[in-house]
Amino acid sequence: MHNPTTILAGEAAATARDEAWRGVRAALPVLLGFIPFALLLGAQASQKGLSAVEVPLLTGLNFGGGSEFAAIRLWHSPPQVALIVAMSCLVNSRHLLMGAALAPYLQHLPARKALPALFFMCDESWAMALADARQRAASRISLRYYLGVSAGLYLTWLLFTALGALLGPALGDIEQYGFDMAFTAVFLVLLRGMWPGLRACRPWLVSLLVAAASSLLLPGAWHVAAGAAAGLLAAMLWTARPC
């Protein structure tokens, strides 16, 4: 006779595995966009003198593509560490808004689970987890699905940035192949999946316009913070005064 507790535990484990694999499968198209961009970052890093060991340390400890590209562009010998750290924090400031949007979907998790999960949050895993929860009309994200997505993205990013560092001297300037357009295509697909309608997306438009104007007028990556602040302010104003 089978123990009911054992049966339930086995079913729960199978469900968890299925959810994780569902996340891995869902992330596969996004992984294809990660590969050329990771190769590009690794090649640029190797041309700045970073080794194939140092590059995955950079990309693994700071899992945010935009800030990593900013750091590599600012990298000189000797590196200006304070400037690189400040610019990385500025570019990653968008994660404050992303985390705030994700927080209501993580309230059921204890901090010992939520905080490690947030370490792997990037633009794509954040967008896919939120889109999946909304599609299921759920008040919480599927943690296993999210971790499946994140594991695929994280490992791909580490592996191919390291590979780009190894191949960088042979590849030369790989921007000429148009690899830098890969993430743009991925973001357009993700935004299409999250599109809630024109009225709800007005803050997106405000953020886009302010960021675009700031990129022409301000040096460095200040357009990231400007666009994020403008979008947040617009969302607050439209929420307070619905029309």
Automatic annotation (TrEMBL):
<keyword id="KW-0472">Membrane</keyword>
<dbReference type="Pfam" id="PF03591">
    <property type="entry name" value="AzlC"/>
</dbReference>
<feature type="transmembrane region" description="Helical">
    <location>
        <begin position="207"/>
        <end position="240"/>
    </location>
</feature>
<keyword id="KW-1003">Cell membrane</keyword>
<keyword id="KW-0813">Transport</keyword>
<feature type="transmembrane region" description="Helical">
    <location>
        <begin position="26"/>
        <end position="43"/>
    </location>
</feature>
<dbReference type="InterPro" id="IPR011606">
    <property type="entry name" value="Brnchd-chn_aa_trnsp_permease"/>
</dbReference>
<feature type="transmembrane region" description="Helical">
    <location>
        <begin position="145"/>
        <end position="171"/>
    </location>
</feature>
<feature type="transmembrane region" description="Helical">
    <location>
        <begin position="177"/>
        <end position="195"/>
    </location>
</feature>
<comment type="similarity">
    <text>Belongs to the AzlC family.</text>
</comment>
<keyword id="KW-1133">Transmembrane helix</keyword>
<keyword id="KW-0812">Transmembrane</keyword>
<protein>
    <submittedName>
        <fullName>AzlC family ABC transporter permease</fullName>
    </submittedName>
</protein>
